[in-house]
């Protein structure tokens, strides 16, 4: 099976390098892989087969068992492993340090997050975040996008600040084009102790996008590769939870670390809480440190959860395609409705959302091209999250009356469950101002565009006509 179109040239430390995946082992031709630290002799002698995204999701880490022939990995519950002699084991000693199911899942994740070489799984997305921040050591400075996931904001400002003396700067990174205010503020924010840039795109719940290519360009300009300042270049971490590895491949654009709450799209069935980091081969030292912390802190997922998440990941490409098609249809249907003020969906209009197109993974682009899914109006599927603003029930309605109308709408839905979280096969709807983002003070919420009429949909993979009917009926019950 050869399907090499989905891994184009990847950036390695500011230079361009060719990246390939063979049975899930990502190799960078100019990278530090294949036992050739200078990469000069790493051109493979035999042609490598490069499988497409869906093929890797199904096969990598899930190879048939050589002893039994089982095509699905067995769940390995043992916490310890018999050694043949002291220190002579089969690769497993104790289940916190390594477990066949967790290792298999990590292999799958490293393969589907294009450009990845290793994945490190944790007991939740939040434990993953905590471990990354811990890895920075004392008194580090973190630059983060301002509408970052609330739990990340909380960990940086209320935990790491007091336990590690972590300093932080939160910035609007929506426009960092050359000469923009955003670019100026970002450059101004760099300090000698800035060790990490934390980015989420699309953001939650207003689905704002960050131009990852431009961000890497700015880093290259500020910390030119091969210059003395290259050693103090902060790491760029992208929380890719909302886009999923199907729609966005930040490592191919030059990011250093990708984070996922696997709880969302990757597991996809709302029955596992888990997180993971995926890193490219060029970041071997960072990977090793994070792997050390995974074991030392011990916030590891269970064998059963790892097995479930790996099973979920096998259908990620199928689900993400349907999530995207449904979400785009719903976004367009909502745009036609009088009582909806604004619809936010990253793929709604290519000219407005050029960043979405730039951030789109090569495999998603390939699919969109092959299926002719780029609309004449420039719209295209981009993950399954849609946000929209309900009009006030009357011109002079108060905050509370507006919130009441939103709540009535949400309660009247039949198929969309009124619930937090996202990324499962079933559709969910919520009011961020009173639910996921309630802890943010009202003034800041307003500044971030999280008003009382804002509704966030996690569009599932049900029939889109049924979902649209559900939303229309819900609106009729309020207005
Ligand atoms: C973007 C994002 N990152 C990280 C997390 C944290 O993940 P978890 O809930 O698995 O701890 C979440 C949770 O909602 C999230 O939405």
From TrEMBL:
Catalytic activity, EC: 4.4.1.1
Pfam families the record matches: Cys_Met_Meta_PP
PROSITE patterns referenced in this protein's UniProt entry, alphabetically: CYS_MET_METAB_PP (PS00868)
CDD domains: CGS_like
InterPro entries referenced in this protein's UniProt entry, alphabetically: Cys/Met-Metab_PyrdxlP-dep_enz, Cys_met_metab_PP, PyrdxlP-dep_Trfase, PyrdxlP-dep_Trfase_major, PyrdxlP-dep_Trfase_small
GN (gene name): CYS3_1
Stated name of the protein: cystathionine gamma-lyase
Known cofactor(s): pyridoxal 5'-phosphate
Keywords: Amino-acid biosynthesis, Cysteine biosynthesis, Lyase, Pyridoxal phosphate
GO molecular function, one term: lyase activity
Family to which this protein belongs: Belongs to the trans-sulfuration enzymes family.
PANTHER family, per database record: CYSTATHIONINE GAMMA-LYASE, TRANS-SULFURATION ENZYME FAMILY MEMBER
Compositionally biased residues, Low complexity: 11-26
